[in-house]
Amino acid sequence: MIADGSEDEEKWLAAGAAAFKQNAFYMQRAIDSNNLKDALKYSAQMLSELRTSKLSPHKYYDLYMRAFDELRKLEIFFMEETRRGCSVIELYELVQHAGNILPRLYLLCTAGSVYIKTKEAPAKEILKDLVEMCRGIQHPLRGLFLRSYLAQISRDKLPDIGSEYEGDADTVTDAVEFVLLNFTEMNKLWVRMQHQGPAREKERREKERGELRDLVGKNLHVLSQLEGVDLDMYRDTVLPRVLEQIVNCRDEIAQYYLIDCIIQVFPDDYHLQTLDVLLGACPQLQPSVDIMTVLSRLMERLSNYAALNAEVLPYFLQVEAFSKLNNAIGKVIEAQEDMPILSAVTLYSSLLKFTLHVHPDRLDYADQVLGSCVKQLSGKGKIDDTRATKELVSLLSAPLEKYNDVVTALKLTNYPLVVEYLDTETKRIMATVIIRSIMKNNTLITTAEKVEALFELIKGLINDLDEPQGLEVDEDDFEEEQNSVARLIHMLYNDDPEEMFKIVSILKKHFLTGGPKRLKFTIPPLVVSTLKLIRRLPVEGDNPFGKEASVTATKIFQFLNQIIEALPNVPSPDLAFRLYLQCAEAANKCDEEPIAYEFFTQAYILYEEEISDSKAQVTALQLIIGTLQRMHVFGVENRDTLTHKATGYSAKLLKKPDQCRAVYACSHLFWLEDRETIQDGERVLLCLKRALKIANSAQQMANTARGSTGSVTLFIEILNKYLYFYQKGVPQITVESVESLIKLIKNEESMPSDPSAESFFASTLQFMEFEKQKEGAIGERYQEIKV
Predict the structure, then answer these.
(1) Which residues of 300-310 are buried (b: 16+ CB within 10 A; e: fewer)?
(2) What's the Rg (C-alpha) of the chain?
(3) Which residues on neighbouring strands pair with residue 679, listed in sequence order?
């Protein structure tokens, strides 16, 4: 054997391997010569190299595998010797003459394997003898590898059902007893490693134990592969014995690994039928054991089992799997008073996912899990552990992902209570997850009660009252969040006007108290949703709710006015201006003249007091003219007042071209083809002449400023307006006025220098020629114009 020394590990391994190789060579030569005595001699010397205590488990394994390969050759030689007449009993006794106990036991296991193969004695007797004899090695590392060798060579010789070694004297019970006994002894050796050596080397020892754990776990794998280990034997013998050893060893590493081994190697239906036994051991484990991961893996396995085998779902109810898991988690948390909040939340998250997979129809189970989680979180305030927060979001997302329906999640009474334990930032993230789920699945929220519950869940996006001072929010993220809230509004819908009005009233309450910076995102879709409600109001005289309970157009328009009034303070006057005009048009369709006039008045006030940018004024004036043109509800007095204001605004625009275009656009306010009461040709002509005057003034100003004739484009635009009204039959627009304008444009010197204007004018003339080709009154009218 290698003498003790202080050389490094590599040199020890190299020296051991060299001696091992030399003795293996002589052993092989003795085997080739059929010399049993020398074969035993050199094999014992070879195996003596395994007595070293200088190698780490990793290096020792290298040496062990060399020995394993050579022992396979020796086993074959022993078998051939028995065929040549050597008594296997004598051989079994002969190998025990080796001087050192470790080589002796390796040789004894090898001979024992041959002994079993010859069937000259019951397999159980030999296996029992071998497993007991191996107690002679109590050094943890050497003992583990010795028993690992015993497990390997005996694996195919166990008296299992259907095995050639099964008989009257040998049953599967004997095989189970042998494996359990070997497992127990191996675990004791493995645990003992933790307590050898100084405390400063604890980390190194734990690493070495991690490298050796598979040697112990293979015993459980062997048990799971035995045909004779049915559910009854597993429940009555195997599981209790294994759990007893796991609990009694009181070792954190062993308990965690072996419980996980049980979950991984035995069949899912066995776990289902023995849940109470397995879970009963969990509270008895050491407090430092990561029971969170173990139970999570168990629930994950059972969930997958249920997902792949729908026919087993009744058994989950039959064995009360949910109740057992829920109770076990409660007991584990109670037993481990210092359990981190992350572990507790992870356990409940796994239990909820298990419940949703196995019992998707039992919302009471899911709510019970959430309630247990709330109970565990109570008194802890906002969670500041990042990983725990992430796991809590995973727990809250599980019902959304399973049901693809937020409405179902809203039925869980404890759901919003769990959300309360999230910090402000995470509440925003969770709210975004909820909204995305609604949009992805096109989920309609149809009652005011559910809308209220939903907005309690997503208040992180619609309310900034509880945000910490100084918290900076990325503007792009903020806009994306608020746009998602705006899209959500269109998913809140009910055909019943009364219920829909309740819904929009709830939205108003939340939005107006949610801070001014959000209003420009949330008010417009709320206005649009409310305007849609107006279109669905019952026809007068056909209201099933009665006059008192009815939602009237007047009431809704008052509601709209209240929410739009908040926008100029944001400030978003342009947005409020547009919404007032939209509401005016809606009032027009409802024949509500006073309300329509009030909305127009509000729009005009905003135009005068808030909209000062010249480009914004042009755009706003175009909207005023376009909306006013479509209004039919106004009487003569109100219409004249609004029209007069619009024309007055047109003349006050900053730039002459803008003035010109606004003035000729106002001409449309005095001639509506489908309304004889609004056909004032004189005022149409007056607008067009005023536009010509302004265009001429603009051209002169351009000539003065730049020293060249201004663009003729404005004249061509006015010509097109002349042609429009001429075609509509406005008496005041005569052939002479059109011809004189065409002549004026042709005489402009700037035309050749402005290709776009020249092209525009050519297109206009081409249009006139096209109209002349038509038959009927239009063609005849255009024939009168001489170009």
Answers:
(1) ebbbebbeeee
(2) 46
(3) 671
